[in-house]
Amino acid sequence: MSERREDWAAGLRAWQRFHVRITAVYTLVVLLVLTLAALVGGRAALDAAMVDLRARMQVAVIALADGIDPDWITSPDDARRAAIAGRFEHAVSAASLGNFYVLRYDPDPTRLSFVVDWDPRGDDPAEPGEIYDGSEVPVLLEGFHRAVIEDEPFEDDWGPSLSAYAPIPAPDDSPLALVGVDVRLAQLQALRRRIVLATVGAWVVAAGLVGIASWRIGRNVRDPLTRVIDAASRIADGRFDTRLALPRDDEFGLLSRHFDQMAEGLQEREVIRATFGRYVAPEVARRLIAEHRTELGGEERLLTVLFADLQGYSTISEQLAPRELVALLNAWLGEMQGAIDTHEGTVIEFLGDAILAVFGAPSSQPDHAERAVRCALEMRDRLTGLRERLDIPLAHRVGIHTGLAVAGNIGSETRTKYTVIGDAVNVAARLEQLNKTLGTDILVSGTTLSECPADLVATDDHGEIQVKGRVEPVHVFAPVRPA
Length: 483
Fold this sequence. Notes:
The structure is a single chain. The protein is an alpha+beta fold. It has two domains: 1-237, Beta-Lactamase; 295-479, 2-Layer Sandwich (Alpha-Beta Plaits), CATH 3.30.70. Helix content is 51%, strand content 22%. It has 13 helices and 15 strands. Strands 8, 9, 10, 11, 12, 13, 14 and 15 form an eight-stranded mixed β-sheet that branches. A hairpin with an 8-residue loop joins strand 14 and strand 15 (474-479). The model has no long low-confidence stretch (mean pLDDT 82).
């Protein structure tokens, strides 16, 4: 079975195999869905993270702004600045944000001044009183009046960042200062990178699980499918004892049961055909079994008849015991049958020490005449080998003629026989007998020879001869024996 499997497997490229294609389609579809889900989910996760970050920034600046006394802004000193920085440090550790600062309001937006600038990394913070030009940052100026957050990162002298602001009003509610928090672009990129890595990691894990599932599914399809193909190949080779016997409760199990029923039926049919074929020509047996009928009658067709007879049978039968005679006869018939089978002829019947065979029936053969002549030449060679093997001076005569005949079933409704009837049969029999007169072993009619290739075989032309039972003479040729 492994050789057969290698044969059909070698004839299929990987993408032509059903389990590969169905697994590939399943995997690609699921991976596509996973990819879309990862893109959508990753984007949603990033949006959610940004919403959370904005919320934390806004809550932090509002809380810090509410906790800073306006007097700390109007009359700052080192202690008050340290107190503000301490609150900023606590907010950073609690909210995981960037640097915080306090800017004092000035009607001139180019004259905003730092009260405190606290950076947890200590990256060059602004000095108290350092001027900041806010004229190009309208959101920042709005932060002196209400809590706001930028829509997109803004780049200043400290680099690109996303900022949120909340006002610290004076006791009379006039603008005094604001608390700002910056989340640097690098922090935003790190946030995006973490989300992307988490999304990719989840995708890889999911893809791995899909790959394992696809492999299992493909194997679940491949294994029974391979067994079905192997079993079908065995059946195609004529090994009808093959059984699938898949212990499954799915469609493959149902297929297995039906397959085994089919194989059992074919096995029974083959036994019948083989047994039947021992009594009639195998081709006739196959045709009768295939058609499921044995109607009486036949069809007229052009065919070639071969008649062969063991020469000197009466003399031989006197010299041998009955068992030896039957063994000899079977040996000769077996060799002749082999030659006929080689050239796909049909043995109509064994007539004691004679054989009636036909070419071109029951199956049509355009080259039936050539097949018959080649068969006769092989019969000559086989006889030579048999004679040497048995050390008995055996000889036979063969007559071949091509013509119209009726091939079909004759007999009664209860017992029939496949045969050929017509002038072609009679002429072939007469030519076989004519070998006695001409001292030849094979005679072929001109009609047969005209249907063969011109260079098929060299012949001796014996001219037109009147044969018994026929008005018209027959042009007779004898294939020349090889030197």
